[in-house]
Specification:
45% of the residues lie in helices and 5% in strands. It has 230 residues and is mainly α. The chain has 2 domains: 147 residues, Orthogonal Bundle (Arc Repressor Mutant, subunit A); 54 residues, Muramoyl-pentapeptide Carboxypeptidase, domain 1 (Orthogonal Bundle). The chain is elongated and about 55 Å long. It starts with a helix and ends with a strand. The N terminus is likely disordered. This is N-acetylmuramoyl-L-alanine amidase. One of its GO terms (molecular function) is hydrolase activity. InterPro entries: Cell_wall_hydrolase_SleB (IPR011105), Peptidoglycan-bd-like (IPR002477), PGBD-like_sf (IPR036365), PGBDSf (IPR036366), SleB_dom1 (IPR042047).
Length: 230
């Protein structure tokens, strides 16, 4: 037990120290050129959908959740935008809509430091290693959803460092420098892309050992190897 506690303490110290030795400009200037690279329609999801929702909200066409999910609310907002601008009203965001939508700056949903972006990317790397991009964003989204829940601390750092919450602090996987995909996943979650639909818990059924708490939570969705719960 003492060895486990010592290992966690070392992981936490490394996590906080190594944040200061990363390229912060890399975290601040992540590539968002994905927006406009495809036609978006109902049923799509991704960082580009989250950016579209932000733009539509800034233009007062959209007042729904910034979740990166192209549902009925996003389609309706696109239709209103198309109607007001004399375009074909079909709720599909394609070349004609892209050509006239103002070049508004996408903003993070949270007022955080670049250090916190790196910290979030490190935990995504540790907890979602082997997962695809959506699975990585999902883990980041859970951390951010916890900030908005009264059950958890109200900062990224405090959520991540809360005792006993993340196994990657135990096995040291969170100590590794995050790759570009983990940084993109962190930014996508911060922009509002939430494929977990507001989940605040996740676990891997293949490796989970303590499962008693799961029965007290509501299943939301499964993404890759993780099950997400509220």
């Amino acid at each position: 037990m003492m060895l486990s506690k010592r290992r966690v303490l070392i992981s936490v110290m490394l996590l906080l120290i190594m944040v200061t030795f990363v390229n912060l400009e890399e975290a601040a200037a992540l590539d968002l050129s994905e927006f406009g690279s495809r036609v978006m329609r109902r049923g799509d999801e991704g960082i580009d959908v989250a950016v579209l929702q932000q733009k539509l909200r800034q233009l007062n066409y959209y007042n729904g959740n910034l979740d990166g999910l192209y549902g009925s609310g996003t389609a309706a907002a696109v239709k209103r935008f198309q109607k007001d601008n004399g375009l074909q009203v079909d709720g599909v965001f394609g070349e004609s809509s892209l050509a006239i939508i103002p070049d508004l700056k996408a903003e993070l949903n949270y007022n955080i430091s670049r250090d916190d972006i790196i910290l979030l990317a490190r935990i995504i790397h540790g907890e979602a290693r082997g997962e695809d991009f959506k699975g990585k964003v999902a883990v980041g989204s859970v951390i951010l959803n916890r900030i908005n829940s009264q059950q958890f601390p109200n900062s990224i750092r405090d959520v991540i460092l809360q005792k006993g919450q993340f196994s990657s602090l135990m096995d040291g996987q969170a100590n590794y420098y995050p790759g570009e995909e983990e940084l993109q996943a962190a930014r996508a979650a911060l922009l509002g892309y939430d494929p977990t639909l507001g989940s605040i818990y996740f676990y891997n059924p293949e490796i989970a050992t303590n499962t008693a708490w799961i029965s007290r939570r509501n299943f939301v969705t499964k993404i890759g190897g993780h099950v997400f719960l509220r």
